[in-house]
Amino acid sequence: MKEKSIVFAALATTIGLIALLFPAGAVAAGEAISVSPATGPAGSAVTISGTGWEEHGSRELSVSITMDGTPVATAHPSKSGTFRVHATVPKSASGTVKISAIIGNGGAAYATFKVGAKSAGCPTNTQIASIPGAGSVGSKFLQKGSGWLPGGVVHVVLPHGSKALFLSISGGAARVGSGGGWQKVVTVGKGTPPGHYTYTATESAPKCPSGKITKTGSFTVR
Questions:
Q1: What are the strands, taking DSSP E only, across the chain?
Q2: pLDDT in tens, 114-140
Q3: DSSP-derived secondary structure letter, 174
Q4: Bridge partner residues of 213 (DSSP)
Q5: How far apart are the C-alpha atoms of 13 and 11, rounded to whole Å?
Q6: How far is 96 from 68, CA to CA, in rounded Å?
Q7: Alpha-carbon distance 203 to 182, whole Å?
Q8: Contact assessment for residue 146 and residue 201, using Cβ atoms and an 8 Å cutoff
Q9: Parallel, antiparallel or unpaired: strands 32-36 and 96-103
């Protein structure tokens, strides 16, 4: 009996060492993804968001994202288990596209994008605004648009030679949401003289006469 006890103890020790050398993968509970917009023509720009994933920094695990098996993006989940990446639906896609998100610990989630909706025409009520319309150096305001083409990217620039310094963590671009809206938080940088300044926002729009949408906004620095 004593010999059996020794054997069992040795076996338990061996199993414990194996567990230390080869730890089981930590699988986050409830991995999920969503895509926006969820419908549109092939070649559409989309945003893929994830929740419930294992943090990238803990074991440097990345989330591989594919569309019908074609790699389109790689995501690195934050400490909160979330991520957001931009991707483009392949121009060869048709019908229902399966979007797969898979991480090295075995976690996975899926979503779909429906191809078939015709490209939107040229918008007729595109708007742009600064909210508020005036402020001092160091203040913040929104550059905000409505009625733009969903899924596109709006590029915002100051005219050549402008003395304004408008700073934004998102740079000079903003992605248009499924409802046609977009916005950027802008800070008036130091050294900007008082005055009335304009800026131009542009989005590619093949069905518009000029091939793009262009609107001019303004902001007054006091």
A1: 32-36, 39-40, 45-51, 63-67, 70-75, 83-88, 96-103, 108-115, 127-131, 134-135, 140-146, 153-157, 166-167, 173-175, 182-188, 195-204, 212-221
A2: 887 555 678 889 999 999 999 999 999
A3: E
A4: 203
A5: 5
A6: 9
A7: 11
A8: no
A9: unpaired
Q: How many CB atoms lie within 10 A of CB 38?
A: 14
Cross-strand bridge partners of residue 33: 50
Neighbours of 173 (CB within 10 A): 15
Model confidence at 7: pLDDT above 50: no
- Please count the CA atoms within 13 angstroms of the CA of 23 that sit on its side-chain side: 6
Alpha helices in the chain, H assignment, sequence order: 2-21, 56-59
Written as six digits, the tokens of 37 are 């917009």
Helix (H, G, I), strand (E, B) or coil at 75: strand
Return the exposure string of 71-84: e unless at least 16 CB atoms fall within 10 Å of the residue's CB, then b. ebbebebeeebebe
CA angle 94, 95, 99 (to 5 degrees): 85
Reference 59, options 32, 24, 85; nearest CA is 24
Residues whose CB falls within 8 Å of the CB of residue 174, separated by 6 or more in sequence, listed in order: 143, 145, 153, 154, 156, 182, 183, 184
pTM score: 0.49
Encode pLDDT of 69-118 as tens digits. Answer: 999 999 999 999 999 999 999 988 889 999 999 998 788 999 999 887 55
Distance (Å) of CA 186 to CA 20, 132, 170, 189: 50, 11, 9, 9
Give the tens place of pLDDT for each residue, 35-70.
998 888 888 889 999 999 998 877 788 999 999 999
